[in-house]
UniProtKB/TrEMBL annotation:
UniProt GO molecular function: glutathione transferase activity
InterPro entries: Glutathione-S-Trfase_C-like (IPR010987), Glutathione-S-Trfase_C_sf (IPR036282), Glutathione_S-Trfase (IPR040079), Glutathione_S-Trfase_N (IPR004045), GST_C (IPR004046), Thioredoxin-like_sf (IPR036249)
Keywords: Transferase
Gene3D superfamilies (alphabetical): 1.20.1050.10, Glutaredoxin
Protein name from the UniProt record: Glutathione S-transferase
Organism, scientific name: Psychrobacter aquaticus CMS 56
NCBIfam families, sorted: PRK11752.1 (NF008731)
Region (Disordered): 1-51
Amino acid sequence: MSQDNTKSSNHADGQNDKYVPPKVWVQDKDNGGKFASINRPTAGARHDKTLPVGEAPLQLYSLNTPNGVKVNMLLEELAELGLKGAEYDAYKIDISAGDQFGSGFVAINPNSKIPALVDHSNKEGGEPIAVFESGAILMYLAEKFGKFIPLEAGKARADCLSWVMWQMGSAPFLGGGFGHFYAYAPEPLEYPINRYTMETKRQLDVLDTHLKNSEYMCGDKEEDYNIADMIIWAWYGQLVLGKLYDAAEFLQVDDYEHVKRWAQKIAERPAIKRAVDLPLQPMV
């Protein structure tokens, strides 16, 4: 009797009442999701592939997904300023083809995720510096060139880093949670879609409440525009502008008027227009 009640309750909640987790999980079948053919529970290189290296001091290996666009934005903003040493070559890592598991890419990012960057600017015998994780790359470049990040300890820097870390902690719920179950899962499931939709809308409300009284994430002046805006815009700005998951109507993004105002203003910047569709050289 109790078993029947449990199954009935699970079914009412939109869960699959036939699945019972085993005592020990094993990967014994394809889950049918969009990236099922490349997903494995192990790390490391799967094939030998040397990364191409161009002539510019900075070498970017990425894809124009939200995580990749973050770094594109900063590199193009630095290019807009004409800074010497900020020149870069950008190469496409096709994650659907498994480029991220090539030996060269794994050597610079053991987590096999885009983006990754290598700084070859030390021409006096120093080893190239590899940086992975989008937040780390943004901080590294902003501090290297002294642009788009407050450098002195104090409120301005604390605000910037707080919002950068907010994005790093929040976006997985948007991308890996909402985006996956809404757009990429093999079939729609009510419970995870509801769970991650609620969290995504809560995050949008956090941003909307903050931006009600602030032109940018960390202030009202043009000089307050910084990597916090870039890292958040790549996910949440594109989301409210209807660029992610075809989910603008579902999420009622027009309700977040302050986020939309902020997102539209940043989208009009010449560097950002270039960044979202950045030409990426093929891996050859």
